[in-house]
């Protein structure tokens, strides 16, 4: 109001000044001045009113921003002072868990024991040794569910997952897919006059005798997936017949999952059966190798994630599973694991372009992935014999 009075005073002074020049002003001038004064007062009032409204809006927006900021702080510090104990297959996932810490305030500790050891101790001691199980073969998660060791978790985020990438009752979930292919050493194949194998049937050719390396399916989840996928692709009888011929070309089964890639790159073997990811393509570029997606069918298996039942921090573990399924976390997993877009499990997420043909993924029966494991491995052992127990 003071501003209005001040501005009106200025206008009156201006009018008085014009009147003082009276002799040169026409008789219509006072009406014009009066009109100008009224317009000035009206405009000044409107301007002041607008300024006051602007100040009110700005103040309201500032209050809303402050409230939103306070809500964000509460959200990001929901688990402040809590610790999520994790069994993970690799320490390469540390950045992913650091992002979870940044968003929730929860600390993360990795247990220095295998998932098998955690399960054994959980059974023996009757209590969970960890909160979260991150990564590993699907068959192990199926067995853990049957033993009653896993916590059920259903949420809006888990509902986004396609059925083939989670347990039907939400006891475990996939974080991505492992796909199986071949790694061929171009130099060795050229020296021996051999072609790069394109199919599983090619691997059965006696010309590759002694030139193939595969990890023991009883130890390597990837190669168990390869064997199970081959049986689903060809059928039981034809599948075992084909594998028997492939076995004839394998001198021994490695006890380390990474041996087929490493030993093929080093020139010890012409062809390795491997999990295909960005690392395989990097090795191919460095060592004159070729990565092959089998044209007759690509075995695959979901990489599991689950929450241990009755663990100390079940709520934190559930929050992590939901976080894992967000766009940001899935993009981080794609980068860490070196995954093709078709290896990701949340629709709409884009990973790397490694040329993985989705239509070549085998139509696998995951329902028997765990239940038939012992039967499959027993038959494998009969075929492989001593080669499956060879030292590295």
Model description:
The protein is an alpha/beta fold and 392 residues long. It is 47% helix and 14% strand. The chain contains 14 helices and ten strands. Strands 1, 2, 3, 4, 5, 6, 7, 8, 9 and 10 form a ten-stranded mixed beta sheet that branches. Strand 1 (83-88), helix 3 (94-104) and strand 2 (107-110) form a beta-alpha-beta unit. The longest helix has 48 residues, at 29-76. The protein is globular. The termini are far apart. The relative contact order is 0.14. The model is unreliable at 1-53 and 61-75 (pLDDT under 50).
Fraction in beta strands: 5-15%
According to DSSP, the number of beta strands is: 10
Mass-distribution shape: globular
Order of helices and strands: HHEHEHEHEEHHEHHEHEHEEHHH
Helix content: 40-55%
Computed over alpha carbons, the radius of gyration is: 35 Å
Largest sheet: 10 strands, mixed
Structural class: alpha/beta
Poorly predicted segments = 1-53, 61-75
State the end-to-end CA separation.
91 Å
Task: Indicate the mean pLDDT.
Answer: 84
DSSP helical segment count: 14
Summary, kept brief:
The chain has 392 residues and is of the alpha/beta class. Helices cover 47% and strands 14% of the residues.
Key features of this structure:
alpha/beta; 47% helix; 392 residues; ten-stranded mixed β-sheet
Summarize the helices and strands and which ones pair or pack.
Elements: H1 2-20, H2 29-76, E1 83-88, H3 94-104, E2 107-110, H4 115-125, E3 132-134, H5 138-146, E4 150-151, E5 172-185, H6 186-191, H7 200-203, E6 212-215, H8 221-234, H9 236-248, E7 250-254, H10 259-265, E8 271-275, H11 278-287, E9 289-292, E10 300-308, H12 314-324, H13 327-337, H14 373-384
Parallel strand pairs: 1-2, 1-3, 6-7, 6-8
Antiparallel strand pairs: 3-10, 4-10, 5-8, 5-9, 5-10
Helix pairs in contact: 1-2, 8-9
């Amino acid at each position: 109001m003071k501003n209005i009075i001040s501005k009106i005073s200025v206008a009156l002074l201006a009018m008085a000044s014009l009147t003082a020049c009276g002799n040169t002003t026409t008789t219509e001038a006072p009406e014009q001045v009066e009109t100008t004064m009224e317009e000035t007062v009206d405009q000044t009032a409107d301007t002041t009113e607008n300024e006051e409204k602007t100040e009110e809006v700005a103040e309201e927006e500032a209050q809303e921003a402050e409230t939103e900021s306070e809500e964000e702080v509460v959200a990001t510090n929901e688990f402040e002072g809590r610790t999520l104990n994790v069994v993970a297959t690799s320490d390469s996932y540390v950045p992913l868990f650091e992002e979870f810490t940044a968003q929730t305030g929860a600390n993360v500790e990795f247990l220095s024991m295998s998932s098998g050891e955690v399960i054994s101790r959980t059974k023996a001691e009757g209590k969970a040794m960890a909160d979260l199980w991150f990564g590993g073969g699907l068959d192990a998660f199926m067995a853990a569910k049957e033993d009653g060791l896993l916590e059920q978790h259903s949420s809006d985020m888990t509902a986004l997952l396609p059925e083939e990438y989670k347990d039907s009752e939400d006891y475990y979930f996939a974080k991505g897919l492992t796909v199986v292919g071949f790694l061929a050493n171009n130099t060795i194949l050229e020296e021996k006059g051999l072609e790069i194998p394109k199919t599983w049937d090619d691997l059965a050719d006696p010309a590759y005798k002694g030139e193939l390396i595969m990890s023991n399916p009883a130890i390597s989840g990837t190669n168990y997936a390869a064997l199970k996928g081959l049986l689903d692709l060809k059928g039981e009888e034809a599948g075992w017949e084909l594998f028997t011929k492939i076995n004839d070309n394998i001198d021994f089964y490695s006890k380390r999952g990474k041996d087929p890639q490493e030993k093929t790159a080093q020139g010890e073997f012409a062809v390795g059966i491997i999990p295909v990811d960005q690392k395989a393509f990097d090795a191919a570029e460095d060592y004159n190798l070729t990565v092959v997606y089998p044209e007759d069918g690509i075995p695959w298996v979901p990489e599991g994630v689950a929450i241990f039942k009755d663990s100390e921090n079940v709520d934190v573990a559930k929050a992590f599973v939901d976080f894992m399924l967000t766009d940001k976390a899935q993009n981080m997993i794609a980068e860490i694991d070196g995954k093709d877009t078709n290896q990701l499990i949340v629709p709409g997420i884009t990973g790397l372009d490694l040329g993985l043909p989705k239509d070549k993924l085998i139509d696998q029966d995951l329902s028997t992935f765990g239940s038939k494991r012992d039967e499959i491995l027993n038959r494998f052992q009969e075929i492989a014999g001593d080669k499956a127990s060879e030292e590295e």
